[in-house]
Amino acid sequence: MASPGHAPAPPPPPSRERGASALRDRVRHAGLPYLLLVPALVLELLVHIVPMVTGITMAFRDLTQEYIRNWGAAPWAGLDNFHIAVDVNAPVGEALLRSFAITCAFTVLAVGLAWLLGATAAILMQDTFRGRGLLRALFLTPYALPVYAAVITWSFLLQRDNGLVNHVLHDQLGLTDAPTFWLVGDNSFVSLVVVSVWRTWPFAFLMLTAALQNIPRDVYEASAIDGAGMWRQIRHITLPALRPVNQVLVLVLFLWTFNDFNVPFVLFGKSAPESADLISLHIYQSSFATWDFGAGSAKSVLLLLFLLLVTAAYLLLTRERAPRATRSRGTRRRKRVHV
């Protein structure tokens, strides 16, 4: 019985109302993460999905400058644009194949050198010494600079008559008989690789430096007591520990480098020398120089399919090697325990 001066307590809600309220709370809490993802999904749809679908549609049309205002009215070409692109006996297919080969060679050199420089710097920066923080900051400068500002600076440095590179190599050191053309001819490929490596190796350095922090220093100290030198430590401790990070790092560097358009476009302009005719710039020329957007879209679709196949094969290969390496380490560990 309620005490005098106090209202009686309200009766408890029915079980059906309590169940409905709990269900609403559960739905509200479960749907909040998806609601927060809606802006990102909308931007992804507008920035990537819609242009990609539009480009794939354009690849099947005979889209030239006559249909720019209304590209949907362009006649249907079917697979003709793809046949022209892959016909290596014709001038268009031969030029595309040459550009593809140049891009493959450029990617292998740029990714390999960027990873090598990044790994070397990350390993050397592990030991504590005076000025290490300053060196790390300087190493990350190329990655922090805007790409256009950095590449434009390199284009001035590589000028034949008044560039700093020729001033040092020819005027100061006398290593060349005459000033070298770095942005035309066969040397343009070397210049492109140098600029690309300079741009991307700090990212490899940053990723590998973060990964090396997870390796206990006790492991190196124990191996040093057992007589292992620096090279044996790198081979048997550092590189195996970096394998998971390297798998992701190499894939990211490959995709960035193979698709790179900004560096060659800013370095050489709209028309790159033949030795530095990367496929991204080649597709740009096919689309915006000849106004044949159907052929350019077909080449872009072929590039997309190639990158998807390479990425899928790489992921399958690394996924199969990882369990095999884990099993082999477990077998060696059991053998040592048994002995």
Automatic annotation (TrEMBL):
Protein name listed in UniProt: Sugar ABC transporter permease
Protein family membership: Belongs to the binding-protein-dependent transport system permease family.
One family name in Pfam for this protein: BPD_transp_1
Subcellular location: Cell membrane
Residues annotated as domain ABC transmembrane type-1: 100-314
Annotated keywords: Cell membrane, Membrane, Transmembrane, Transmembrane helix, Transport
Keyword Transmembrane helix recorded: yes
PROSITE patterns assigned to the protein according to its UniProt record, in alphabetical order: ABC_TM1
Membrane topology of this protein: Multi-pass membrane protein
Xref: Gene3D superfamilies: MetI-like (1.10.3720.10)
InterPro entries referenced in this protein's UniProt entry, alphabetically: ABC_transporter_permease, MetI-like, MetI-like_sf
GO CC field: plasma membrane
GO BP term, pick one: transmembrane transport
Primary residence: membrane
Lineage top rank: taxon: Bacteria
Chain segments annotated as transmembrane: 34-60, 100-125, 137-157, 189-212, 240-258, 300-317
